[in-house]
Amino acid sequence: MKFAAVFLVALIVSALAAHLLVGDQGWVIINFRGYLIEMSVPGFLIISAALVFVIWLTRRVIQAPRRLGEAAGRYRAGRAGQKLTRGMIEVAEGNFAKGEKLLARAASTSDSPLFNYLQAARAAHLQGQDERRDEWLRLAYEQAPEAANAVLLTQAELQLDRQQYEQALATLRRIEENSRDHSHALALLGRLYYRLEDWQHLAALLPRLSKHGRVKKETINKWTVRVHSENFNRAADGDAVIAEWKTVPKALKSDTSVLNAYYMNLLRTGLHEKVEKDLAAALKSEWRGPLVRLYGLVEGPDASNQLKRAEGWLSKHGDDPDLLLAAARLCLRNELWGKARSYLETVISLRPTPEAYQEYGRLLNQLGEGDAAADAYRQGLGLVAHSPSLDIPRLESDRR
Question: What would the pLDDT profile of 328-352 be if each residue is shown by its tens digit?
Fold first, then answer.
């Protein structure tokens, strides 16, 4: 199209020149180093045009191989792009083997095969072919060493998905060597420590996760709560429990799970009197069912006074199953069997739990009603058997 336009312009210019020169063609004289060249103006124009044409043609001939190579490259790239698209479609539709083949073939003709190899690795992973997956990842690393982190992150994600925790840990530590505080690598490392229940390393990682990691604040809080709860459980004595409490962030000291772990371990280490005072003060400030339940486990110095306080709370919270269970336990400590039975039967009618049935069975055994006690234990065990198992929390929507 461009050549046709140039030719048309040249033709028009030539026609105008011929019209102007038809009367008097004129002469062109060129004197160069003793050589004298004479010709008419039309002849000069024709020779000049021919010379321009020869130069243009020569240039095109010289550029032809390069242009052919570029055209062939565009064709190969187009074909590789089509194979890549088809491969991605096949993988998305669940045809993992076919998709993997298409992605691998496209990589051999692609100018940047990194994406092909990464996607082929995912396709192999979805087929359970871990060795082939790792081979594609090795090729991706060799083709693009500058994208080492991208390859290693992909490998770590796939290893985590396959629960290959030791291999994933080694992979993530390689990223740590290359790029410390890589946000996504830190997030994966945090998830890995959580699954491994490696609370010590997770605790050390939490400040970096808060600063650099791409982890939601809710997840950070959940992991922090779990770390402190486990530290409470491992505390050797009451002083260690109190020392751990001082390290809990202020924002989490009102968290029910943290408080529950704290008070339970104070009870475990024998600090019942402290728990009684602290719980009474906490419940006066804010009423919480789980903390009320703990009040029934406290073996304070004055069981009668403790029961009197609990029954005082019943005037405002008489339909709270946790308070009724606590009152029942305190009645058992005070050997008030009839009142304890009344409280426990009310709890079971409001919210039957394995815990309530266990206490009810103990009471019935105490009263000599062995068959009824056995039936209560069976019903409590039935509730345990039908309780759904809890999943381990993960980042965002990543669930086990």
Answer: 999 999 999 999 999 999 999 999 9
| Contact yes or no for 252/225 (Cβ under 8 A) | yes
Q: Tokens 């509730």 identify what position?
A: 383
DSSP codes joined into one string, 64-86: HHHHHHHHHHHHHHHHHHHHHHH
Asked, for residue 289, whether it belongs to a domain, the answer is yes
**Torsions phi, psi of 328, nearest 5?**
-60, -45
Evaluate the CA torsion angle 137, 140, 144, 147 in order and state its sign.
negative
- Is the model more confident about 87 or about 120? 120
Question: For helices 321-333 and 303-314, what crossing angle results, to 10°?
Answer: 150
Domain ends where: 94, 113, 140?
140
33 three-class SS: coil
Q: What is the pLDDT of residue 71?
A: 45
Q: What is the pLDDT of residue 8?
A: 53
pLDDT digits (tens, 9 = 90+) for 123-171: 898 888 889 998 988 988 888 888 889 999 999 999 999 999 999 999 9
Query: What's 131's domain CATH number?
Result: 1.25.40
Of 140, 162, 187, which marks where a domain is finished? Answer: 140
Structure tokens at 12: 């028009």
331 located within any domain: yes
Q: What is the CATH number of the domain that holds 325?
A: 1.25.40.10
- Domain tally for the chain? 2
Cβ neighbours of 130 (radius 10 Å)? 16
Rounded Cα gap, residues 310 and 239, in angstroms: 28
CA distance 282 to 288: 9
Residues of the domain holding 108: 81-140
Tell me how far apart the alpha carbons of residues 27 and 101 are, in angstroms, rounded to a whole number.
73
For residues 118 and 133, give the distance between their C-alpha atoms in angstroms, rounded to a whole number: 9
Does residue 1 register a pLDDT over 80?
Answer: no
> What distances in angstroms separate CA 96 from CA 90, 93, 158, one per listed residue?
7, 8, 15
- Compute the half-sphere exposure of residue 269: CA atoms within 13 Å on the CB side of its CA: 19
Q: What is the pLDDT of residues 360-395, one digit of tens each?
A: 999 999 999 999 999 999 999 988 765 444 444 444
Model confidence pLDDT, tens digit, residues 249-286:
999 999 999 999 999 999 999 999 999 999 999 998 88
Helix axes 41-92, 114-126, angle to 10 degrees: 20
Q: How far apart are the first and last CA of the chain?
A: 62
